[in-house]
C-alpha cells in the first residue's frame, strides 16, 4: 500500500480549546483522509490536550496517530519525533492552536507535484490581531528566490516540505532553542531546495493569537529572545557565505529579532542587565552588521542597532528614549530637508550619513501633531455661536503655512483655522459653527475625534488633537430645525479631543428630569 501524500506534524502542549479547531480543520481537508496522515505528539500536556488527541485517533484510526512524551520545554523535540514517524511524500507543519482552510493541503500538494517544488508556501493570515508578514504572499509564483524576495521575513515552518529533501539533508529542529527553533530548519530547507514556490490566491493557514497570549512567541522572556537572536544570526553566518546573499537574510534578523530588543522595555531593565545585553548585541553587530545589511534596514531600526554597535550604553539608552518618545522630535531644518536631531546626527564620532536621520517625508505628520490647550464656546467671524478649539505646536514653521495647508476637522466638517507665531512655536485657533456641526451629524448622534491635517514639503499628514491635561467645554443644548441636541466637547481616555453630539429625545429628557427630581419629590 502506498503511503499518504502528506503528513501533517502537530506538536501539542496545552492548547485546548484551540486544538479541537485545529484537528477539525485537518480531518476535514478536501484532499481526503486516504491521502493524509496526522502525526501529533503530546509534549506532556496537562490541560486535556492529550486526551483530545486520543479521542481523534480513536475516531480516525487510519488518519490520526498520537505519540505521548514527557514535556521537553519547546516544540522542537516533539516535531522531530513526529518527523521520525512521518510516511508522507510531503510534510506540513501546523501549530496546534492554528487551523487550515478546507482546501489548503490539496492545493499545496497539487502545486508541489505540478511544479516539482521542494517547498511551497500558502498564504498565512493572522486572527485575533496576530501579526503575519504578508509581502511574500502578494502573488502566486512558481519560483521564489530566497535572496531576492520577502521570503526571509516568513521563515516559520508552516509550509509544505518534500520529505525526501528533509531526510536527504538530515534536517531537524534545534532542541536547544526554546523559541525560534523552526527558523534554522526552514531556512536551510529553502537554501537546499531546488525550487521554492508560493501560492497567494487562497487563505491556507490561520495563525491564531490566543486570548491569553500564551503562544510561545508572545510569552517568551527577554533573555530567551536575546539568545534566539544570537543563535539565528550565528546560524545564518554558518550556512551562507559572506556577501549580498547573507545580507539579504540577516536584514530580517537584525530588524526583527535584534532591533526589537532595543525598544522601551530595554530602558526598564536593571543597569547591570542593560550592560550585559548591550555587550552581547554589540558583539553580534560588530561581527555581522555589514553596510549591505544597514542599507536595507528601515531608518529607526538601523539607527538603534548601529548605535548599539558604535556607541556606549548612555548613547544607546538615549536613542531608544528619543525614538520611544511620542511627542514631537527635535529636528534640524536644512534647506528643504528635515533631520531628526537624534544620537549621532552630524557627530564625527559616529560618522553616519545625514540620510539616516532624514524625516522630511514625515514633516507633514510631525507638523500635524498639535496639543489642545482649550475648548470653549464663543463666536466666529460672522458672529455665529461656535465651538472654539485652541492648540499649540512647538514648530514655528506651522505659522508659515498657507491657510489651505492647515486644516482642523470634526468628522467631515473642516473648521475655520488661523495660526500665529508665539515665541518659538505656533498657536492654532479653529472655529466650528454650531449649526454646521449639527448639520453633519447623523440623527442618532455621534462621538467624533478632532483631527489636524497638514500639507507640507510634498506630503500630507494627519493626527488627532491630543492633550497633556484634561480639557472640556460646558455642554451646550442647541437646536437644528425641530430637533434639539446636546453638544459635549471633551477628551476621551486616550487624551484625544472629541465632540459628542446626542439628540435630546423625550425619553432622555424625562430620564434627566427623574435624576433632577427623584421619585416622591415635589
Description of the structure:
By secondary structure, this protein is of the alpha+beta class. The protein contains 17 helices and 23 strands. The protein has helices spanning 18-27, 49-59, 76-85, 104-115, 163-168, 182-192, 216-219, 222-239, 244-258, 264-267, 271-288, 291-296, 299-310, 313-324, 363-367, 434-439, 506-516; strands spanning 6-12, 36-43, 64-69, 90-95, 99-100, 119-122, 124-127, 160-162, 196-199, 205-208, 331-334, 337-340, 371-379, 385-393, 406-410, 413-414, 416-422, 425-433, 446-456, 459-464, 476-480, 483-491, 497-503. It has a 7-stranded mixed β-sheet with strand order 3-2-1-4-8-6-9, with helices on both faces. Helix 6 runs parallel beside helix 8. The protein starts with 5 loop residues before the first strand and ends in a 6-residue tail after the last helix.
Amino acid at each position: 500500500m502506498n503511503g499518504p501524500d502528506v503528513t501533517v506534524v502537530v506538536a501539542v502542549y496545552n492548547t485546548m480549546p484551540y486544538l479541537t479547531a485545529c484537528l477539525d480543520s485537518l480531518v476535514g481537508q478536501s484532499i481526503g483522509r486516504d491521502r493524509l496522515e496526522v502525526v501529533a505528539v503530546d509534549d506532556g500536556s496537562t490541560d486535556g490536550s492529550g486526551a483530545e488527541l486520543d479521542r481523534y485517533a480513536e475516531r480516525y484510526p487510519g488518519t490520526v496517530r498520537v505519540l505521548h512524551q514527557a514535556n521537553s520545554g519547546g516544540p522542537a523535540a516533539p516535531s522531530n519525533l513526529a518527523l521520525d514517524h512521518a510516511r508522507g511524500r510531503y510534510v506540513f507543519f501546523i501549530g496546534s492552536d492554528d487551523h487550515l482552510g478546507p482546501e489548503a493541503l490539496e492545493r499545496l500538494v497539487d502545486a508541489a507535484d505540478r511544479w516539482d517544488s521542494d517547498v511551497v508556501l500558502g498564504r498565512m493570515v493572522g486572527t485575533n490581531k496576530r501579526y503575519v508578514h504578508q509581502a511574500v504572499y502578494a502573488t502566486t509564483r512558481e519560483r521564489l528566490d530566497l535572496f531576492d524576495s520577502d521570503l526571509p521575513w516568513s521563515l516559520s515552518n508552516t509550509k509544505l516540505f518534500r520529505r525526501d529533501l528533509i531526510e536527504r539533508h538530515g534536517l531537524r529542529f534545534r532542541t536547544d532553542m526554546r523559541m525560534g527553533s523552526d527558523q534554522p530548519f526552514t531556512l536551510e530547507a529553502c537554501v537546499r531546495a531546488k525550487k521554492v514556490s508560493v501560492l497567494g490566491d487562497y487563505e491556507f493557514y490561520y495563525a491564531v493569537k490566543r486570548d491569553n497570549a500564551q503562544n510561545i512567541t508572545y510569552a517568551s522572556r527577554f533573555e530567551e529572545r536575546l539568545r534566539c537572536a544570537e543563535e539565528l544570526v550565528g546560524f545564518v553566518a554558518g550556512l551562507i557565505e559572506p556577501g549580498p546573499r547573507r545580507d539579504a537574510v540577516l536584514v530580517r534578523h537584525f530588524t526583527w529579532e535584534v532591533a526589537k530588543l532595543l525598544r522601551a522595555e530595554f530602558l526598564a531593565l536593571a543597569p547591570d542587565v542593560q550592560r550585559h545585553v548591550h555587550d552581547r548585541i554589540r558583539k553580534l553587530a560588530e561581527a555581522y552588521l555589514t553596510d549591505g545589511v544597514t542599507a536595507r534596514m528601515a531608518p529607526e531600526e538601523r539607527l538603534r542597532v548601529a548605535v548599539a554597535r558604535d556607541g556606549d550604553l548612555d548613547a544607546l539608552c538615549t536613542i531608544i528614549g528619543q525614538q520611544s518618545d511620542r511627542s514631537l522630535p527635535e529636528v534640524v531644518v536644512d534647506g528643504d530637508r528635515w533631520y531628526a536631531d537624534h544620537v549621532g546626527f552630524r557627530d564625527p564620532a559616529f560618522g553616519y550619513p545625514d540620510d539616516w536621520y532624514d524625516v522630511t517625508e514625515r514633516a507633514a505628520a510631525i507638523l500635524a501633531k498639535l496639543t489642545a490647550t482649550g475648548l470653549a464656546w464663543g463666536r466666529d467671524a460672522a458672529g455665529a455661536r461656535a465651538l472654539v478649539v485652541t492648540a499649540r505646536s512647538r514648530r514655528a514653521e506651522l505659522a508659515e503655512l498657507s491657510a489651505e495647508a492647515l486644516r482642523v476637522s470634526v468628522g467631515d466638517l473642516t473648521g475655520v483655522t488661523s495660526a500665529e507665531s508665539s515665541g518659538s512655536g505656533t498657536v492654532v485657533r479653529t472655529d466650528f459653527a454650531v449649526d454646521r456641526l449639527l448639520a453633519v451629524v447623523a440623527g442618532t448622534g455621534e462621538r467624533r475625534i478632532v483631527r489636524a491635517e497638514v500639507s507640507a514639503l510634498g506630503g500630507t499628514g494627519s493626527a488627532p488633537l491630543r492633550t497633556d491635561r484634561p480639557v472640556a467645554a460646558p455642554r451646550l443644548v442647541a437646536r437644528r430645525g425641530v430637533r434639539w441636541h446636546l453638544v459635549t466637547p471633551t477628551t476621551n481616555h486616550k487624551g484625544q479631543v472629541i465632540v459628542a453630539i446626542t439628540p435630546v429625545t423625550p425619553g432622555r429628557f424625562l430620564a434627566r428630569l427623574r435624576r433632577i427630581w427623584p421619585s416622591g419629590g415635589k
